[in-house]
Amino acid sequence: MLVASVVLWLTNLTAAALVVAPVGLLLLAWSWWLVGRQVRAIGFAERRDDLLVVSGIMFRRLVVVPYGRMQLVDLSAGPLDRALGLSTVQLHTAAATTDASIPGLRTADAAQLRDRLAAAGEQRSAGL
Amino acid sequence: MNGQPSGALQGPGATPTESAPRHLHPLTPLAHAAQVIPVALAAVVFAGGISFATRVYIGLAVAIGLACLVAGATYLQWQRFTFFFDDAGDLRVDSGILQRNHKKLQLSRLQSVEVNQPFWARLFGLAELTVEVAGAGESNAQLRYLGAGDAHELRNDLLARAAGIGSTTEAAPETVIATVGPGELLLALLIRGQTLGLFVLTGALLTVAFSTGGVGALAVAAVTGGVPVFAVVGEFLRSYGFTVARSPDGLRVRRGLTSTVANTVPPGRVHAVGFVSGPVWRHLGWVRVLVDLGGTPGSGDERAQGSTVLLPVSSWPVALEVVRHVLPGVDIAALHFEGTVPAARYRAPLQYRRIGVAITPQVLAARRGWLTQWLSVVPHGRVQSARITRGPWQRKLALADLHLDTVPGPVSVRVPHMPEARVRAVLEAELDVAATARARDDATRWMTRRPDPHDTAPIDETGGRGGVDGS
């Protein structure tokens, strides 16, 4: 929206630009606030036998993965993540529907978490 | 089973020795080549252009040429393809003409052995043996093709070795516990809700098309009428002659009309069982039984889809009898379901009465659905992870959905719209029993595990045989 308003201003449609710009600013502020809330809604807890991950505001989700069921712990970071020093830890089980990921961890913390999870998984590992 | 007791029968505990490398059946290249002929012929003949007779001649020439090429290539492959049992008792498969590929299939991790007879192999009296071990991706070997008798002998041998009772080519004794006759199967498929629905829609569209003289409706009718016909015919061909038999190494499922499939489901491989019944079937007391199996080959494999069907259609008593063998010690008829709270009717007005969850020492059972009703059962030791989800409307009513994740398959275990506090309590309880169940679970070498009264019961030859008509 902000880009659009700049384009409008440059093409001498100043009146339109004046309408679009505030809307763009409002949207930016709203999504800033929303993303902040969404990030705060993400949480995880390492319990004695399992890992618990919560997320979502409107549609809330809670996933519990027993350490004994983890098949793989993934650590990934996109280019933007890397620039900010962040990583995502994702857990995989034999079920495709598990979907337990913890985004936005500091890379060092994420690596430690992954190692702890892998160790816990090895201790309690069971077959399929 | 036509397995002949020909091989040297080793007693339990005998040290396995390396067997001589064997080739596939010598007719293999011919069977591969024969498959090419009709396709090539049809492609040329239906291509159009020049006169019909010329097209037939060209088609024949192309087809025979291609068939020779295929035969030559598969002959080279056949020459370089051998398999044997190594001194550790595992199956080795060596293949490849230029790039050699040596595969070792650890039989202690055996998931299933299937003997299939695709249409073309069947014409030559050949069969294809698929050996699958636990693990992702390339964890299987296909022996294409063996003689039908050889394939069954090798299957028996593999199962005996995997079960830890040495090498034998004798088939384990088995008792048929359920069959589905062709009449019942066809009727059941025709009166399935979705088939009937599409047929009614087609009828309506045809009426419209004929009364208004429009052509558009006719085209749509061809689709709505064609889809169920193909679905019914396809399923009929796949499930024709469906037989479930009990044997010490698991349930034997045999099915198929043009191509026949025989697979054995070891008890340890069943991760979840689902009973599905649509609106019409329910009135007749019919049900379909599906399973989630560990170690199923990747999705998109047609045979894999078929092998998750434990019974295409059956009466409840027969279905329960079959499921008793894959979930030993679980009495599904005696489950006592705990329903949801009346508030759930504001979120799920139709299905809220059906929603329920039951927990026994071995399994968790979940019931849901109104038009198509589901009953899913998962052994505690097979739960991979658990989830709770709550939408905005559910939160207003203090409701939540409980999901238990299992290996990929047609059965999903879900208890929708239960009171929030109760869902949390069930989840914690489930995690607790699942942890204990996992600890004592041992799915490999199932024959040598500690005796289970159910598995070791002598097999009675007069055992309950039944089908849809039998009740």
Q: How do you describe this structure in short?
A:
The complex is a heterodimer of chains A (128) and B (471). Chain A folds into 2 domains: 2-37; 43-124, PH-domain like. The radius of gyration of chain A is 21 Å and the shape is elongated.
Instruction: Please work out how many helical segments of chain A DSSP would assign.
Output: 4
How many runs of DSSP E, i.e. beta strands of chain A?
A: 6
Gap from first CA to last CA of chain B: 28 Å
- Mean pLDDT over all positions of chain B: 82
| Oligomerization state | heterodimer
> Approximately how much helix is present in the residues of chain A?
40-55%
Biggest sheet, spatial arrangement of strands of chain B: 7-6-5-11-10-9-8
General form of chain A: elongated
Largest sheet: spatial strand order of chain A: 1-2-3
Tell me the span between the first and last alpha carbons of chain A.
51 Å
% residues in beta strands of chain B? 25-35%
Spans of chain A of at least 5 consecutive residues whose pLDDT stays below 50 are none
Q: What is the CATH T-level topology of the largest domain in chain A?
A: PH-domain like
The tally of domains of chain A stands at 2
Provide tags for this entry.
A: 128 residues; alpha+beta; 2 domains; 3-stranded antiparallel β-sheet; 48% helix; 28% strand; B: 471 residues; globular; disordered N terminus
List the helices and strands and how they pair.
The complex is a heterodimer of chains A (128) and B (471).
Chain A: H1 2-10, H2 14-41, E1 43-46, E2 50-55, E3 60-66, E4 72-76, H3 79-84, E5 86-92, E6 100-106, H4 107-124
Antiparallel strand pairs in A: 1-2, 2-3, 4-5, 5-6
Helix pairs in contact in A: 1-2
Chain B: E1 22-23, H1 28-45, H2 52-80, E2 82-85, E3 91-95, E4 101-105, E5 110-117, H3 119-123, E6 126-133, E7 140-147, H4 148-162, E8 175-179, H5 182-190, H6 193-212, H7 216-239, E9 243-247, E10 250-255, E11 260-265, E12 270-277, H8 279-284, E13 286-293, H9 302-306, E14 309-315, H10 316-326, E15 356-359, E16 363-368, E17 373-379, E18 385-390, H11 392-396, E19 399-405, E20 413-419, H12 420-440
Antiparallel strand pairs in B: 1-2, 2-3, 3-4, 5-6, 5-11, 6-7, 8-9, 9-10, 10-11, 12-13, 12-17, 13-14, 15-16, 16-17, 18-19, 19-20
Helix pairs in contact in B: 1-2, 5-7, 6-7
